């Protein structure tokens, strides 16, 4: 077993130095981004090359029901083979014993990647870029709320109680005093991230009451998606230590901003290492404009993946720090597509559409897929937007059903993401949406019961 431990990433080895490893959590992301898998004794993990789980974990809705997503052979809950990616081995520092987490990849009985496993979907998209001689680079930003414990779905979600004994305040973006209110939780987030070997580029207070943002350094899309997947869990665990909840809902509190997962993209030429968005003299290239056009033209169809729940669409409202359309502009946060200030080497395009409630593998995959279509089809965007984009018209779906309609018609996007993934995803989301439509809301009872 000691020889196996010597192959672990440096952070995992440092975490275990002088200690005995007790357990390994073998995990994989399902469609919502929940960690599924098995916990096994370290001695058993050292002897196993793989384990099995049924592929039905990808047919399960967020409520725990099952979508009818039978394939051409009929749905028989076939076993998948899950193989560890040891480069992802990292600590689980909130556990009572010495535990590691390892992300696994899913394969079918013929050793082919399972096409609707989210990590495999992202790997597929990255592979298409690499086949063209390009290396995509992303940097995600994670927004989330720290809220008071709430175990009653009928109660409104409220901000957590701060260190001062007062509820977290809204409208305090970038306030260091506001950040200090969450000091103990943030300290644990930093400690957990350090134990796991993750580098945080910064933590800031956002505009909502109890809303924070964590920025990650740019890098390989699969590696960054792994980190977001891990971060969601470690942030929740840090919050629980301090009697509050961390939520990644897109819109947890009415009249407050929602939570996004902004994604910054740049593309490198594999051979030269140069950013293809910048020319030899530092100017913007055709590829830069093609990528922007791809986002504009294909993100409406991809929105069902980047805004995966009915709650997601409550975020896209005017003047609440979320876009309502896909205009693009330089250094303009009112647009859905923003080009941040940077030098030629760091020129990048920011997608401000994706919600923090999306699966990070799938959100990044769809964003890259839309840009890829723009690149290979050499699409051209309109002129950049000038002014306040909230004064313009909305051009993205406003409800889940409409977004699913567009996604199901988007055959070009399906070819990039994988047709079988598109089929299964649509089945699961239709099942969720139909279940939601069976629920009568308090608003309906209040205003329709005696008035219509």
From TrEMBL:
GO terms for biological process: glutamine biosynthetic process; polyamine catabolic process. Its cofactor is Mg(2+). Keywords: Ligase, Magnesium. Pfam families: Gln-synt_C. Residues 118-452 form the GS catalytic domain. GO terms for molecular function: glutamate-putrescine ligase activity; glutamine synthetase activity. Its EC number is 6.3.1.11. PROSITE patterns: GLNA_ATP, GS_CATALYTIC. Coiled coil: none annotated. Belongs to the glutamine synthetase family. This is Gamma-glutamylputrescine synthetase PuuA. It comes from Phaeobacter italicus. The lineage of its organism: Bacteria, Pseudomonadati, Pseudomonadota, Alphaproteobacteria, Rhodobacterales.
């Amino acid at each position: 077993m000691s020889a196996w431990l010597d192959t672990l990433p440096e952070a995992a080895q440092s975490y275990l130095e002088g200690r005995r490893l007790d357990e390994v959590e073998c995990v994989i992301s399902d469609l919502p981004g929940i960690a599924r898998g098995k916990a096994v004794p370290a001695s058993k993990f050292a002897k196993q090359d793989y384990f099995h789980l049924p592929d039905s974990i990808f047919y399960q809705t967020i409520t725990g029901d099952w979508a009818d997503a039978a394939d051409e052979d009929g749905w028989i809950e076939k076993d998948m083979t899950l193989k560890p990616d040891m480069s992802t081995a990292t600590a689980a520092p909130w556990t009572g014993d010495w535990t590691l987490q390892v992300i696994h990849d899913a394969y079918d009985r013929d050793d082919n990647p399972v096409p609707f496993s989210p990590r495999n979907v992202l790997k597929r998209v990255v592979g298409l870029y690499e086949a063209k001689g390009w290396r995509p680079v992303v940097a995600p930003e994670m927004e989330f709320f720290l809220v008071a414990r709430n175990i009653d779905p009928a109660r409104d979600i409220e901000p957590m109680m701060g260190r001062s004994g007062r509820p977290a305040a809204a409208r305090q973006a970038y306030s260091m005093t506001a950040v200090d209110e969450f000091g103990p939780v943030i300290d644990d987030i930093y400690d957990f991230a350090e134990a796991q070997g993750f580098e945080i580029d910064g933590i800031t207070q956002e505009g909502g009451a109890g809303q924070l943002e964590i920025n990650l350094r740019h890098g390989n899309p699969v590696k960054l998606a792994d980190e977001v997947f891990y971060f969601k869990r470690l942030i929740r665990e840090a919050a629980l230590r301090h009697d509050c909840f961390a939520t990644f809902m897109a819109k947890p509190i009415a009249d407050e901003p929602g939570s996004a997962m902004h994604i910054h993209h740049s593309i490198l030429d594999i051979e030269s290492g140069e950013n293809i968005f910048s020319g030899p003299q530092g100017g913007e290239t055709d590829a830069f404009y093609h990528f922007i056009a791809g986002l504009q033209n294909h993100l409406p169809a991809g929105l069902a993946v980047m805004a995966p729940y009915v709650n997601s669409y409550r975020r896209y409202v005017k003047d609440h720090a979320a876009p309502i359309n896909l205009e693009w502009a330089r250094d303009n946060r009112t647009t859905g597509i923003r080009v941040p200030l940077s030098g030629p080497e760091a020129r990048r395009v920011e997608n401000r559409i994706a919600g923090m409630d999306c699966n990070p593998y799938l959100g990044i995959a769809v964003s890259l897929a839309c840009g890829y279509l723009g690149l290979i089809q050499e699409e051209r965007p309109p002129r950049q937007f000038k002014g306040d984009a909230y004064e313009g018209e909305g051009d993205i779906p406003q409800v889940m059903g409409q977004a699913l309609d567009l996604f199901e018609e988007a055959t070009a996007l399906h070819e990039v993401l994988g047709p079988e993934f598109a089929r299964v995803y649509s089945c699961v989301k239709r099942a969720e949406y139909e279940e939601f439509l069976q629920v009568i809301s308090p608003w309906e009872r209040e205003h329709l019961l005696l008035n219509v």
